[in-house]
Design goal:
The structure holds two protein chains of two kinds. By secondary structure, chain A is an alpha/beta fold. Helix content of chain A is about 20%, strand content about 30%. Chain A is globular. The chains are: A alpha/beta, B alpha/beta.
Chain lengths: ~400, ~300
């Protein structure tokens, strides 16, 4: 810890001063906020936060330290942590290290003393925007040049920055093989698939449909990940090549990629959904799950509307037949999941794997895997988790 | 959750005076319930023995009775006001026990009053410690070792199994009035005798001591469609052994990792589902403890 002055600077010139508390460097990217009250380490290591600076709305971060169990990938992907206050204790009951020491060792700058409520209101009004965390020794005009040099999030392919170089396979031999396109998959997703007996092959995001099909998986899984789905045409092409031939299930970015693959459009949300308290309604059963969310883009509703105004399973006509709404976000009425009715495919916008956040939707992993096991007694034609309820 | 149109008049029982074990949160939730039900167009009839609470200000209910929270006076109110339903889940232990009595003595049936929020069996599962323990066991949740005793001799036998120190609590007094921690056989006999006296059904519960463990509470809510939410999480700064009524608490919880917290949340939902509250706005307090990792006295 340096104890030196640091500041947050946004591209519109808004500045918040505070204290530099981790690595004494600067970071630029998109400034976003998460409303999770716990799970700070999971968020920092979630590849979906690549190129983003996380503002924590929870005012006090670091209480329970850091641990290996909370790693969602092998490294920190968020570029900085912006906090109201933080603690650096390693003597918490489950801690293996202290929060700020860990950030510093990972080379990640962090700032405290920021009025995060004001910053979040600013982002809610003006939208997630480019910005940076800077040590006080960097002059504001230099900082602004660095912020402006940062490419905007819309149109950005970040999958290539977080995807692995080669294929690697995890999970038990003999389990149903799931071919995942690794656009920055969270460790919790892999863990929940493997815990349920699946064998998961993680493919680099440049994998082709032919390569996926040649690996003879039981199903194809589209992962979470950072960046704009509209910039990932090559993955969308690969998905188009497997749709209808293998069951396909997508989470988060995977939901957006599958939607684009069937011809639906995506758009950038003003400030995204990030946190562990988003109520999502299953429009078929009426049940509500409190969900973990982390996304800045969303899929348009039928007719191109950004929101769904009815609690009904409305339908889209797509290049691959009819798609049906399965879930809607109760905060802003955006699409949270859909099921393809004519081919085995389904998607979920939020994070059933938690890590961090509620476990309300873990059952979706059971439903997905029950569906794709080769020994499934009467395989329904729909792989989407919702297909099972019909 | 759909609105119920088959009931018009709802009787709410307040919690009476603020005491340890039945603190201001019950009064607060009762006030909120009055507001919400009136907003929804229901007629609210209120009985509360506490004239000092804002709840008994005239504007909070259509008819307000400042009467003792006892079966006789409340039965008279029911006879006069003829409510369709009784909502007993917002007045703490006092209201729950009163609702049980009014069910058992036939008052509710006689005047056709439906218990809403929690039915008679669910109140029993939550408030009768033996039934609660069985319910938790069936739900697969671990509890401290415990036993029920109705005499001092039974309690002494039970203590051989559970070990000392043991926590002794009289049944049907949520705040622990009449209970205590027995470290010796002699203390055990004294506290059990006192507890049996304090319990309206002459029953005490003996629990394995979790003194020194961390204490967490979750306030959870469940609706008729089985949707559950956490209203808030609470962490006691003082360890187990300092009575909740004396303990400083902070909300939300501060020191659980996300994974531990989510596990606690899952378990709280298991509890409310197993007990079977199907409430319209009932908060159910679920407690959990965590053993200190560096405890040198762990068994």
């Amino acid at each position: 810890m340096t104890g030196d002055i640091a500041y947050v600077l946004l591209e519109d010139g808004t500045r918040f001063d505070g204290d530099s508390v981790a690595h004494d460097s600067h970071a630029t990217g998109e400034v976003v906020f998460t409303t999770g009250m716990s799970g700070y380490q999971e968020s920092m290591t979630d590849p979906s936060f690549a190129n983003q600076l996380i503002t924590f709305t929870y005012p006090h971060i670091g209480n329970y330290g850091v641990s290996a169990e909370a790693m969602e990938s092998d490294r920190v992907h968020a570029r900085a942590a912006i906090m109201r206050s933080a603690v650096n204790r390693e003597d918490a009951p489950n801690a293996e290290g202290a929060w700020l020491d860990w950030l510093r060792d990972c080379g990640v700058p962090a700032i405290t003393g920021v009025d995060t409520r004001e910053l979040v209101r600013h982002i809610r009004d003006g939208g997630a925007m480019r910005g940076g965390v800077f040590p006080g020794r960097i002059a504001e005009h230099e900082a602004m040049e660095l912020v402006r040099a940062e490419p905007p999030m819309a149109g950005l392919d970040l999958a290539r920055e977080v995807t692995p170089e080669g294929v690697h396979v995890v999970g038990p031999h003999g389990g149903p093989l799931i071919a995942a396109i690794d656009t920055g998959i969270k460790a919790s997703i892999v863990r929940h698939l493997v815990q349920r007996g699946a064998r998961v092959a993680l493919h680099p995001c440049g994998v082709s449909a032919t390569e996926l099909l040649q690996s003879e998986p039981e199903a194809v899984f589209l992962a979470n990940g950072p960046g704009d789905p509209a910039a990932l045409g090559y993955i969308v092409d690969a998905v188009r090549g497997v749709l209808g031939k293998k069951p396909v299930w997508g989470i988060c970015l995977g939901h957006q990629l599958l939607s684009r693959a069937v011809g639906l459009d995506t758009f950038k949300l003003p400030f995204g959904h990030r946190g562990g308290n988003h109520p999502v309604k299953d429009v078929e059963t009426g049940r509500i799950e409190i969900t973990s969310q982390n996304h800045g883009f969303a899929v348009v509703g039928p007719g191109g509307a950004h929101t769904i105004d009815v609690d009904e399973p409305v339908r889209w006509e797509t290049d691959f037949g009819t798609a049906q709404l399965s879930r809607v976000n109760l905060y802003d009425r955006t699409v949270e999941g859909l099921t393809l009715l004519d081919i085995p495919a389904g998607t979920i916008q939020y994070h059933p794997e938690a890590g961090p956040g509620p476990n309300d939707a873990l059952h979706l992993f059971d439903e997905f895997l029950d569906q794709v096991r080769p020994d499934a007694a009467h395989p329904d034609q729909h792989a989407g988790p919702d297909a099972l309820r019909r | 959750m759909p609105r119920r149109d088959d009931i018009q008049r709802i009787l709410i029982l307040g919690s009476g005076p603020i005491v340890i074990g039945q603190a201001a949160e019950f009064d607060y939730s009762g006030v909120q319930a009055c507001k919400v039900l009136k907003e929804e167009g229901y007629e609210v009839i209120l009985v509360n023995s506490n004239p000092a609470t804002i709840m008994t200000d005239p504007e909070f209910a259509d008819a307000t009775y400042v009467e003792p929270l006892l079966p006789g006076p409340v039965a008279q109110v029911i006879e006069k006001e003829r409510p369709d339903a009784l909502l007993p889940t917002l007045g703490g232990q006092t209201a729950l026990n009163l609702a049980r009595t009014l069910h058992e003595d036939g008052t509710l049936e006689r005047f056709g009053v439906e218990l809403i929020g929690a039915n008679y069996d669910a109140i029993g599962r939550a408030e009768d410690r033996d039934l609660f323990g069985q319910t938790m066991e069936r739900a697969g949740l671990r509890m401290p070792r415990s036993a029920i005793a109705t005499t001092v001799e039974e309690a002494e036998d039970a203590a051989d199994e559970i070990g000392l120190p043991a926590i002794i609590r009289p049944a049907f007094t949520l705040g622990g009035r009449g209970g205590g921690i027995a470290r010796t056989r002699e203390e055990l006999r004294t506290i059990v005798a006192r507890g049996l006296d304090a319990s309206p059904i002459d029953q005490v519960l003996l629990d394995q001591s979790v003194l020194g463990w961390g204490e967490f509470e979750l306030e959870v809510m469940r609706d008729r469609n089985d949707n559950c939410v956490v209203v808030c999480s609470i962490e006691n700064i003082d360890p187990m052994g300092v009575h909740t009524g004396d303990s400083v608490t902070v909300a939300p919880q501060q020191t659980l990792t996300d994974r531990l917290y989510q596990r606690l949340r899952d378990q709280a939902f298991q509890v409310i589902r197993a007990v079977g509250w199907r409430p319209a706005g009932r908060t159910c307090s679920s407690r959990s403890t965590r053993k200190p990792r560096r405890s040198s006295s762990s068994r």
